[in-house]
Amino acid sequence: MKTLFGTVVLTLALLVSSLGSPPQVKVPDLSGTWVFKSGKNPNNVASLRITQTEAAIEITESHKPKAQQADRVLTYYSDGRGESNPTSDGKSELKSRSRWEGETLTTLFDSFSKQPEVVNERRDDWALSKDGKTLTITTTFAVSRPPIGAGIPFGLPRPTSSHSKVFHVVDKRVFKKQP
Questions:
Q1: How far apart are CA 37 and CA 41, in angstroms?
Q2: Is 34 helix (H, G, I), strand (E, B) or coil?
Q3: Beta-carbon contacts of residue 55 (< 8 Å; ≥ 6 apart)
Q4: From CA 147, how far away is CA 163, in angstroms rounded?
Q5: Would residue 132 be called left, alpha or beta, if left means φ above 0 and alpha means ψ between -120 and 50 degrees?
Q6: Strand, coil or helix: what is 5?
Q7: Predicted local distance difference test score (pLDDT) of residue 110
Q8: What is the value of pTM for the model shown?
Q9: How far is CA 84 from CA 3, 19, 81, 93, 95, in A?
Q10: Residue with the larger pLDDT of the pair 112 and 124
Q11: 100/117 Cα distance (integer angstroms)
Q12: At 6, phi and psi to the nearest 5?
């Protein structure tokens, strides 16, 4: 009887402890060489070479031969500690924070506006297809300004309502994995 009671108590304890822990989400492995297939490509990126460890994701962008740009190395930390990477022209740095949102790597960039009352937002979402052969990078830009009558100099574009978001542009780039 004691043995049966002990077994039941132990089983219940294990069941309760497993219910209390959040399920572990397996993040996709972005590692590999990815070749540009479609979408806007203003920086003439021909391919991405990605290595991924627990929290660090290092990306080397290779450019089309006529682009006359050197390879650019970018490092993102998915644990949210923040990173600083060179801009496409190499003249400055972009600060950002990255984290996994489910199976999507999301990077939020600091505002890069030169006007203190304007906030430029940029968000990159990196997602793999279910078969792991297609990498889609979705970039979202949004600009926020103070509402009408908040001291914006004459001649600058203004929101048409009390909402501060002026526009929202989405750009998608698709890469195919090399075998």
A1: 10
A2: strand
A3: 77, 78, 79, 81
A4: 7
A5: left
A6: helix
A7: 84
A8: 0.72
A9: 59, 39, 11, 6, 4
A10: 124
A11: 30
A12: -65, -40
- CB contact burial 130-142 (16+ within 10 A = b; e otherwise): eeeeebbbbbeeb
pLDDT for 120 equals 78
Top mean-pLDDT range of 28-37, 63-72, 86-95: 28-37
Q: Which residue has the tokens 């279910």?
A: 130
User: Could you give the count of Cα atoms lying within 13 Å of 111 in the half-sphere of its Cβ?
Assistant: 12
CA atoms within 13 A on the CB side of 50: 22
Share of the chain above pLDDT 90, in %: 45
Condensed to tens digits (0 to 9), the pLDDT of residues 135-161 reads 999 988 887 766 555 554 444 444 444
> Pairing state of beta strands 45-52 and 119-128?
unpaired
The two three-digit tokens of residue 178, written as one number: 């090399």
For 85, the token pair is 């990477």
Which residues are CB-neighbours of 68 under 8 A, at least 6 positions away? Answer: none
Q: Which two tokens stand for residue 141?
A: 């830009």
Question: Architecture of 28-177 per CATH?
Answer: Beta Barrel (2.40)
